[in-house]
Specification:
This protein is of the alpha+beta class and 165 residues long. It has six helices and four strands; from the N terminus they run E-E-E-H-H-H-H-H-H-E.
Length: 165
C-alpha cells in the first residue's frame, strides 16, 4: 500500500492523504496540520514498528474507507475485535508527544501509552525501549522530510514502512 501525503496551500489548516491499496483501489482524507508529522503518518511508523496488521492503517489496507474509519473511530474501539486499533491510537498519541518534545524519553512515552490504553480498555502492547527509540527516530526522520516538503508537493511512503524497529 502507498501513502501519498500532499501538502496543499502554503498556509492552511489541512493537507491531504491519499491511500492507494495493493489492488489499486484508493481512499483519501484531510489531514489537519499540527506543526509536526501528521497523526495519520505517525500511524505508519507505529503500525510498522509494532508489526500491527489490524491497526487503523491495517483496516484501511483491508478495504476500510479512511474518512469513514476516522469519523467512526470509536466504533472500532472494541477490545475483543479491534484491540490493535485502540493500541495503535494510544501509541501514536504517546509518540506524537515525544515528537513535540523533540527528544525521546522512554519512561514518559510508556507512561503516556499506558494511560491511553487504560482509557481505551486495551492491553498495553509490548514496546521495548529499543523499539520505542527506533519508532521515534523514524518519526523524526519523516518529520524532517515532511517539514521540507513544499506546498503542492507530495511525500510518498510505502506501508508498512521497511526500516522501523
Amino acid at each position: 500500500m502507498k501513502l501519498i501525503a500532499r501538502k496543499l496551500e502554503a498556509v492552511g489548516k489541512y493537507d491531504r492523504l491519499r491511500v492507494v491499496r495493493d489492488d489499486g483501489s484508493e481512499t483519501s482524507c484531510e489531514m489537519p496540520r499540527q506543526g509536526v508529522l501528521p497523526h495519520d503518518l505517525l500511524h505508519a511508523v507505529v503500525e510498522s514498528g509494532l508489526t500491527m496488521n489490524n491497526g487503523f492503517l491495517g483496516l484501511v489496507a483491508k478495504g476500510a474507507d479512511i474518512a469513514f474509519a476516522e469519523k467512526n473511530f470509536r466504533d472500532y474501539i472494541d477490545p475483543e475485535n479491534f484491540a490493535q486499533v485502540a493500541q495503535a491510537e494510544s501509541v501514536v498519541e504517546g509518540l506524537q508527544t515525544q515528537l513535540w518534545a523533540g527528544e525521546f524519553d522512554y519512561e514518559a512515552f510508556l507512561s503516556g501509552v499506558s494511560g491511553a490504553c487504560a482509557m481505551r480498555k486495551v492491553a498495553l502492547p509490548a514496546i521495548s525501549e529499543a523499539v520505542g527509540q527506533s519508532m521515534f527516530n523514524q518519526a523524526m526522520k519523516l518529520n524532517a522530510e515532511w517539514q521540507g516538503t513544499p506546498a503542492k508537493a507530495e511525500l510518498i511512503l510505502p506501508f508498512p514502512l521497511a526500516d522501523v524497529a
